[in-house]
Amino acid sequence: MSLVAIKNISKSYWRDSLEIPVLRNISFDIPEGEFLALMGPSGSGKTTLLNLIAGIDRPTTGSIVIGGTDIGGLGETALAQWRSRIMGFIFQFYNLLPVLTAFENVELPLLLTKLSSKERRDHVEFALKIVGLEERMRHYPKQLSGGQEQRVAIARAIVTDPTILVADEPTGDLDKVSAEEIMKLLDRLNSEFKKTIIMVTHDPRAAERAHLVRHLDKGELS
Amino acid sequence: MKIFKIIFKNGLRHKLRTILTVLGIMIAVTAFGFLRTVVTAWNAGVSASASNRMITHHSVSIIFTLPIAYRDQILKIPGVSAISYANWFGGVYKDASDFKNFFPRIAVDPETFFDLYPEFGLSSGEREAFMKDRNACVVGHKLAEEHGFKIGDIINIEGDIYPGTWEFVVRGIYQGRDATVDETQMLFQWKYLDERIGQLQQGRQGEVGWYVLSVKNPADLAPVSKTVDDMYFNSRASTKTETEKEWQQSFVSMSSAILTSLTVISYVIIGIILLVLSNTIIMATRERIREYAVLKTLGFTRGHIIGLIGGESMLIAVVGGVLGLFLTFPMAGAFAKAFPTWFPIVVVEPLTIVLAFGAALFAGLIAALFPAMKITRMNIVDGLRTIG
Ligand SMILES: Nc1ncnc2c1ncn2[C@@H]1O[C@H](COP(=O)(O)OP(=O)(O)O)[C@@H](O)[C@H]1O
Ligand SMILES: [Mg+2]
User: What's the per-residue H, E or C state across A77-99?
Assistant: First the structure.
């Protein structure tokens, strides 16, 4: 059985009473351990689809079953708890909290767990080590380069040891060299740590790292 | 790291804005506490009045006197358990332009005064000494401290209502039973006044400014008052008998419009606290919409978000409130010092403290309410799309 089973989902937004369909009747499965790249032109619905899979938005119709859980059946709070256990999030603009140090940003998702502060410290240091930033723990986001910020964000995404990493244009705001580093890191997380990765990108070089590339156009998958 | 640390760091994100907000709340809380303290000080005389005492004075005005002969006649009325009497002396002590020399000087009957006013605490030794010398006087504890009066000191007063130079010797210092007792008065023997004025101006002897009556049963207040006033209705000096409370209210009621406006202003101040804090919290949450969306994405729930926003609001409110209360005491102290005899009893009441601090907490709660509601209701996806 596949890890993610998407069945007949569609998503529309409404502007006043006008329906704007964004995704139309999409079905596909993602097996465990997959590294999937979702490509497509701007406005084709990539972010929308990723958000639905990640459980931060709900489809208009259809169902999404992840690891045996139909996430459409979860209430707000249950869904939030589910996300904190299953999903790791990587955003285009890193979305670190500016008032927190790198260490504190990575520690953030662990505040929702029952771990002791000693255990949290071990987890955070381990995650920062994987992304190669253990020396920058006390730095604030504005003291880091874009590539470093994204690596902190990746550490934050993996610190809870989630099953799936979702990444929305993770290299979209980075120079070539930094982008290359981030892609290597994601590759390693997939091969070495067995994370299932779903990545939205329109950078062909980034997509090369993925094992499977799916294209989205005008709300339809090809 | 704990949630509290995030609240703290968020609060310090815009240091100047936070400091200004805290100062704003501090000033408002101080103003609220101070205004309420002034209003209480103003009303202190009234609330300190005993419920079993009545005052009989001339029906026309307090400046006209009553004959001493009324004393025994009134005492015979059923329901009256004790009677005392007193005269307002007036006079000038030292430099009249200095506020602190304006303390009340009252001629009283040493035999009965302290029985009717048990809240004026005087040791039995001092009370005996007060009765012994004709020109003895007792002064309030606060007045004695203010002027450095000690037992045996001579106090000279230049008379006005009662002409001449009057010399008094301090034989006692009374202590108020509680903070509502006026400790700034000077009391001396009525007989000293009566005897000396008799020598100077014949015919002014045997005059009493007012009588103080006590009744055993509060139910007797009304009938006793009627009996007394009926008894002297057709006499040369007709009387008006009222409860001590009514009597004291007649002094403050003239200023009731001012008191009312001060009270209204003190409530307006609560509104100001609310606006100052709301403004800050609304600005703070608006510029962090995306961060809250990220936190929600990571699994932080409604309760966490409310805790973060409410906590920050409360933190600012509490710090401002505490600072404001700390500032209220020296303000009230300075006020009491500036007008020692006009406002003999200036106390920052526990209720004032509770209300002032409560106002800050209330503002903290309300200021956080709407921003927190807005953020918890916000879609994560919309929040993430917000630029800023
Ligand atoms: N909250 C929203 N309200 C209205 N329209 C939206 C909303 N979110 C996305 N859209 C629209 O849906 C379409 C797909 O958006 P998105 O999934 O962000 O595309 P992509 O990530 O592929 O660029 C766009 O036309 C966008 O304007
Ligand atoms: Mg997008």
Answer: HHHHHHHHHHEEEECCCCCCCCC
